Amino acid sequence: MWKILAALILFASVSGAQIYDKGNMGLGIIIGGGSLEVDNKTQNYTIAGASVDYFVIDNMSVGIGYMSWFGASPSLNQITVPVHYYLPLDEKYRPYFGAFIRETLLESPYESYESYGLKMGIAIKLSQKVFLGIGVVQEYYGSCDFQKECSSAYPELVATFAF
Protein backbone atom coordinates (compact mmCIF):
# COMPACT_ATOMS: atom_id res chain seq x y z
CA MET A 1 0.00 0.00 0.00
CA TRP A 2 1.24 3.44 -0.97
CA LYS A 3 1.20 6.28 1.51
CA ILE A 4 2.56 9.65 0.68
CA LEU A 5 3.38 11.17 4.04
CA ALA A 6 4.41 14.58 2.81
CA ALA A 7 5.12 16.24 -0.50
CA LEU A 8 6.42 19.70 -1.35
CA ILE A 9 6.55 20.96 -4.91
CA LEU A 10 8.40 24.15 -5.56
CA PHE A 11 6.99 25.37 -8.86
CA ALA A 12 8.88 28.34 -10.31
CA SER A 13 7.38 30.21 -13.23
CA VAL A 14 9.78 31.58 -15.80
CA SER A 15 7.37 34.39 -16.68
CA GLY A 16 6.74 37.57 -14.72
CA ALA A 17 2.98 37.50 -15.46
CA GLN A 18 0.33 35.79 -13.34
CA ILE A 19 1.33 32.16 -12.99
CA TYR A 20 -2.02 30.89 -14.30
CA ASP A 21 -1.85 32.84 -17.61
CA LYS A 22 -1.61 31.14 -21.01
CA GLY A 23 1.97 30.67 -22.21
CA ASN A 24 3.63 30.50 -18.79
CA MET A 25 5.97 27.64 -18.03
CA GLY A 26 6.90 26.30 -14.65
CA LEU A 27 9.89 24.36 -13.43
CA GLY A 28 9.55 22.47 -10.18
CA ILE A 29 11.46 20.50 -7.59
CA ILE A 30 9.69 17.65 -5.80
CA ILE A 31 10.72 16.70 -2.27
CA GLY A 32 8.86 14.36 0.06
CA GLY A 33 8.59 11.01 1.70
CA GLY A 34 6.48 7.91 1.36
CA SER A 35 6.14 4.31 2.37
CA LEU A 36 5.50 1.12 0.47
CA GLU A 37 4.71 -2.38 1.68
CA VAL A 38 6.99 -4.93 0.02
CA ASP A 39 6.89 -8.63 0.91
CA ASN A 40 4.78 -7.85 4.02
CA LYS A 41 7.35 -5.32 5.24
CA THR A 42 6.93 -1.53 5.20
CA GLN A 43 9.70 0.35 3.40
CA ASN A 44 10.20 4.09 4.01
CA TYR A 45 11.47 6.22 1.15
CA THR A 46 12.79 9.68 0.40
CA ILE A 47 11.25 11.11 -2.78
CA ALA A 48 12.98 13.64 -5.04
CA GLY A 49 12.25 14.80 -8.56
CA ALA A 50 11.50 17.57 -11.00
CA SER A 51 8.57 18.77 -13.10
CA VAL A 52 7.83 21.09 -16.02
CA ASP A 53 4.37 22.57 -16.67
CA TYR A 54 2.99 24.73 -19.46
CA PHE A 55 -0.24 26.73 -19.36
CA VAL A 56 -1.92 25.87 -22.68
CA ILE A 57 -4.81 28.24 -21.91
CA ASP A 58 -5.46 30.56 -18.97
CA ASN A 59 -5.81 28.49 -15.77
CA MET A 60 -4.99 25.11 -17.42
CA SER A 61 -1.58 23.47 -17.35
CA VAL A 62 -0.15 20.30 -18.88
CA GLY A 63 3.15 18.93 -17.70
CA ILE A 64 5.60 16.12 -17.20
CA GLY A 65 7.36 15.12 -14.01
CA TYR A 66 9.96 12.66 -12.79
CA MET A 67 10.27 11.30 -9.24
CA SER A 68 12.80 8.89 -7.76
CA TRP A 69 12.02 6.92 -4.59
CA PHE A 70 15.24 5.94 -2.80
CA GLY A 71 16.53 4.88 0.60
CA ALA A 72 14.86 1.45 0.62
CA SER A 73 14.44 -1.56 -1.62
CA PRO A 74 13.23 -1.83 -4.29
CA SER A 75 14.13 1.56 -5.72
CA LEU A 76 11.57 3.01 -8.08
CA ASN A 77 11.25 5.85 -10.55
CA GLN A 78 8.06 7.50 -11.72
CA ILE A 79 7.19 9.51 -14.83
CA THR A 80 3.95 11.48 -14.51
CA VAL A 81 1.92 13.45 -17.06
CA PRO A 82 -0.53 15.76 -15.21
CA VAL A 83 -3.25 18.17 -16.33
CA HIS A 84 -4.51 20.84 -13.87
CA TYR A 85 -7.31 23.37 -14.08
CA TYR A 86 -7.51 26.28 -11.63
CA LEU A 87 -11.02 27.74 -11.25
CA PRO A 88 -10.75 31.57 -11.43
CA LEU A 89 -13.53 32.12 -8.87
CA ASP A 90 -11.63 34.35 -6.46
CA GLU A 91 -8.36 36.28 -6.57
CA LYS A 92 -7.11 34.86 -3.24
CA TYR A 93 -8.61 31.31 -3.27
CA ARG A 94 -8.60 29.16 -6.43
CA PRO A 95 -10.04 25.66 -6.31
CA TYR A 96 -8.18 23.29 -8.61
CA PHE A 97 -8.70 19.83 -9.98
CA GLY A 98 -6.61 17.62 -12.19
CA ALA A 99 -5.88 14.22 -13.59
CA PHE A 100 -2.68 12.33 -14.29
CA ILE A 101 -1.21 9.17 -15.75
CA ARG A 102 1.96 7.67 -14.29
CA GLU A 103 4.47 4.99 -15.21
CA THR A 104 6.29 3.45 -12.25
CA LEU A 105 9.58 1.71 -13.06
CA LEU A 106 10.77 -0.80 -10.45
CA GLU A 107 14.12 -2.50 -10.11
CA SER A 108 14.30 -6.23 -10.83
CA PRO A 109 12.74 -8.69 -9.94
CA TYR A 110 9.60 -6.51 -9.65
CA GLU A 111 7.57 -5.48 -12.70
CA SER A 112 6.83 -1.90 -13.67
CA TYR A 113 3.22 -0.74 -13.72
CA GLU A 114 0.94 2.12 -14.75
CA SER A 115 -1.43 4.17 -12.64
CA TYR A 116 -3.79 7.07 -13.12
CA GLY A 117 -5.58 9.40 -10.79
CA LEU A 118 -7.50 12.50 -9.89
CA LYS A 119 -6.68 15.39 -7.59
CA MET A 120 -8.45 18.39 -6.16
CA GLY A 121 -7.72 21.14 -3.71
CA ILE A 122 -7.47 24.85 -3.21
CA ALA A 123 -4.65 27.22 -4.19
CA ILE A 124 -4.30 30.10 -1.74
CA LYS A 125 -2.57 33.30 -2.86
CA LEU A 126 -0.14 34.33 -0.10
CA SER A 127 1.39 37.25 -2.03
CA GLN A 128 1.57 38.48 -5.62
CA LYS A 129 4.11 35.76 -6.48
CA VAL A 130 3.45 33.00 -3.90
CA PHE A 131 0.61 30.47 -3.79
CA LEU A 132 0.01 27.51 -1.48
CA GLY A 133 -2.02 24.54 -2.70
CA ILE A 134 -3.60 22.04 -0.32
CA GLY A 135 -5.41 19.05 -1.72
CA VAL A 136 -6.00 15.33 -1.95
CA VAL A 137 -4.95 12.81 -4.60
CA GLN A 138 -6.72 9.54 -5.46
CA GLU A 139 -4.49 7.13 -7.41
CA TYR A 140 -5.62 3.91 -9.12
CA TYR A 141 -3.14 1.19 -10.08
CA GLY A 142 -3.36 -0.61 -13.43
CA SER A 143 -2.12 -3.80 -11.77
CA CYS A 144 -2.65 -4.91 -8.18
CA ASP A 145 0.10 -7.53 -8.35
CA PHE A 146 2.69 -5.41 -6.55
CA GLN A 147 0.46 -3.70 -3.98
CA LYS A 148 -2.15 -5.15 -1.64
CA GLU A 149 -4.43 -2.23 -2.48
CA CYS A 150 -5.60 -1.31 -5.99
CA SER A 151 -5.84 2.39 -5.13
CA SER A 152 -4.70 4.90 -2.54
CA ALA A 153 -5.49 8.42 -1.41
CA TYR A 154 -2.91 10.83 -0.03
CA PRO A 155 -2.52 14.54 0.76
CA GLU A 156 -0.87 17.04 -1.53
CA LEU A 157 0.94 20.21 -0.44
CA VAL A 158 2.12 22.54 -3.21
CA ALA A 159 4.08 25.79 -2.82
CA THR A 160 4.10 27.90 -5.99
CA PHE A 161 6.60 30.69 -6.56
CA ALA A 162 6.20 32.92 -9.63
CA PHE A 163 9.01 35.12 -10.87
Which descriptors would you attach to this protein?
mainly beta, Porin, 163 residues, disordered N terminus, single chain
Number of domains: 1
Q: Percent of residues in beta strands? A: over 45%
What value does the Rg take, in angstroms?
16 Å
Give the helix level as a range of percent. Answer: under 10%
In the CATH hierarchy, what is the architecture at level 2? Beta Barrel
Compute the number of strand runs: 9
Uncertain residue segments: 1-16
Topology record:
Layout: E1 3-13, E2 25-38, E3 41-57, E4 60-70, E5 76-86, E6 93-106, E7 113-127, E8 130-141, E9 151-162
Parallel strand pairs: 1-9
Antiparallel strand pairs: 1-2, 2-3, 3-4, 4-5, 5-6, 6-7, 7-8, 8-9
Structure description:
By secondary structure, this protein is mainly beta. The chain has a single domain, classed as Porin (Beta Barrel). It is 0% helix and 72% strand. It has no helices and nine strands. It has a nine-stranded mixed barrel with strand order 1-2-3-4-5-6-7-8-9. It is elongated. The model is unreliable at 1-16 (pLDDT under 50).
